[in-house]
Write a structure and sequence with these properties.
This protein has helices at residues 4-8, 14-45, 50-60, 70-86, 88-106, 111-127, 129-132, 136-147, 158-174, 181-190, 198-213, 217-220, 227-239, 247-259, 268-273, 278-288. The protein is mostly helical. The radius of gyration is 22 Å and the shape is globular.
Length: 294
């Protein structure tokens, strides 16, 4: 546990500092393990697990305090994310009071904390549209700040950016009536494809394929302006084999490319294809032939 009083004591020396650091590290590891157990419990049992999680919340909730170390706040946010994702009763009961916590953490300079926060925003946007809607403008502002940051694709920040783009895809799909759909699509398409977080990439590619199959104007944009970028992203994703998509999405994505051959600029697919490695080219060709990459 964080002990600012001990660290501030006048007789606090280097040896005590090392001992306190080791103590904090051990307690963070314990919190992390407890958080992982609670997440697995919620994932397995959903609403049935909520009463047991609630009994532990007096121990978890203090970790959300902004004065706590970022790593402790991240652990607590992971529990919150799991509850929002896997317990409909938990979302209904707690989402409104948790949204300010998620929004504040989404503005953190700590990249892992930021990633957990925007993951939770994406879950809330997709699973509880009515409860999320009053918070949609603030959530969009937080996500936009992440995906437009100059260093958003740096090694340190790309995981958080992928999660923010995933949240943006959920907002585009479920909240375009309350937000600027054109701006959301511009930001989302500009960030494609997601490459760092494979799980969020699969979620986003699923959304993209669904919207493309219905020729959704929210995604395609005015005069289908996003079509070239979407096609290029699809080619690159298919080139990654099963890394960023599952078999079903891959086949549907390839089917979309086949269906669009007469409506996309000549040479667009070839231009992206030429930049792939030999292995990626083979993956793409397998999907386009109706097969799974080896």
């Amino acid at each position: 546990m964080f002990h600012p009083q001990r660290a501030a004591a006048e007789d606090f020396d280097e040896e005590e500092e090392e001992a306190l650091a080791a103590e904090n590290e051990a307690e963070e590891e314990l919190y992390d393990q407890v958080g992982s157990c609670l997440g697995n419990f919620l994932q397995s049992f959903g609403d049935a697990a909520l009463p047991y999680v609630e009994r532990l919340m007096p121990n978890i909730a203090p970790l959300l305090d902004k004065n706590r170390p970022d790593e402790e706040r991240r652990i607590a946010l992971c529990v919150i994310d799991d509850m929002l994702e896997h317990s409909a009763a938990g979302r209904a009961k707690y989402l409104n009071q948790l949204m300010p916590v998620l929004l504040d953490a989404a503005r953190s300079t700590h990249t892992d904390l930021r990633q957990c926060a925007v993951y939770g925003l994406g879950v809330a946007a997709a699973t509880s549209p009515d409860l999320f809607k009053p918070h949609a403008p603030a959530a969009f502002a937080a996500v936009k700040a992440i995906v437009t940051a100059q260093d958003c694709k740096s090694d340190d920040n790309e995981m958080a950016t992928d999660n923010a783009l995933s949240a943006l895809a959920a907002m585009l799909e479920y909240h375009s009536d309350a937000l600027d759909a054109v701006q959301m699509a511009d930001l989302l398409v500009a960030g494609l494809p997601l490459k760092c977080d494979a799980v969020e990439s699969q979620k986003v590619n699923d959304v993209l394929v669904r919207l493309m199959e219905t020729q959704d104007p929210r995604l395609l944009g005015p005069n289908n302006k996003h079509l070239p970028q979407l096609v290029s992203a699809f080619v690159e994703v298919l080139g990654r084999g099963s890394e960023l998509i599952n078999e079903g999405i891959g086949r549907r994505m390839a089917g979309l490319l086949h269906s669009m051959q007469g409506s996309i600029p000549a040479g667009l697919v070839e231009a992206t294809f030429s930049g792939l490695s030999d292995k990626q080219k083979a993956n793409f060709q397998a999907y386009m032939a109706g097969q799974m990459p080896a």
